Description:
By secondary structure, this protein is an alpha+beta fold.
Amino acid sequence: MKLEFTKMQACGNDYIYVNCLKNRLKNPSQIAKILSVRRFSVGADGLVLILPDQKADFKLEMYNADGSLGKTCGNALRCVAKYLFERGYTDKTRLKISSSGVIYRADMLVSGKKVVTSRVNFAVASFSPDDIPVLAREPIINKSVEIDGKMLLITCVSVGNPHAVIFCEHPFAVGNLKMGETLERASMFPQRTNVEFVKVIDRQNLTALVWERGSGRTLSCGSGACAIGAVAVKLGLADFDTPLNVKMEGGTLTVTVAKDYSVRLDGDCKIVYDGVAYVED
């Protein structure tokens, strides 16, 4: 099968984007697994389908590198908005894009036919165990959990998908990726979880290492940055309504947490190249 695609990245969080506005892609889970393998294929953190939608302007469907269906992706939402505007599928600079049944608002600052920055008003962060989900009777907020024989202070939060956020002095320490992999699949998370190791630089700047559910180590994560911001405010390490710069391995994303814990995500995103892949039927 011949498959046309566009490679896009946001702070190194790269996905293979397929325009499905006219034709639905068959077997997207399997195609995500095949094309996401680095060095042996296109290579990416996953596959994103751009689809029509009856309730929103457009729809996003995201598959992780392991083929699992992702609930949502902040960086992908921003990239899809850029793609649709720059490729002429819309002249709107404010779009409603649905993902997993939730409608998000994406705003773009444009110059001519180019998108300078792309922003998404993301989910309202929830610390409720049922929303995440995590097997606990009460919210897990800065609580000690043993992983691989080491005690970690973990805060669990949902921003449309599950996250375990760990504030520590050395987020890039040897062994953290292994702990992230173990924590992703810990029995306390029935749907697995994303994991972020975070260091506070000051009240407006943080740095983080990301282990993404279904994709492993990623250079950045939009929903992860939103989760980090929400937890930082919850723990009194940052302030409401104040832009927080979250520096990840691939670049810096900016999040702003409102008093109702709704989170706004800002950052750069780029079209890398258009390509054609050949996938065995």
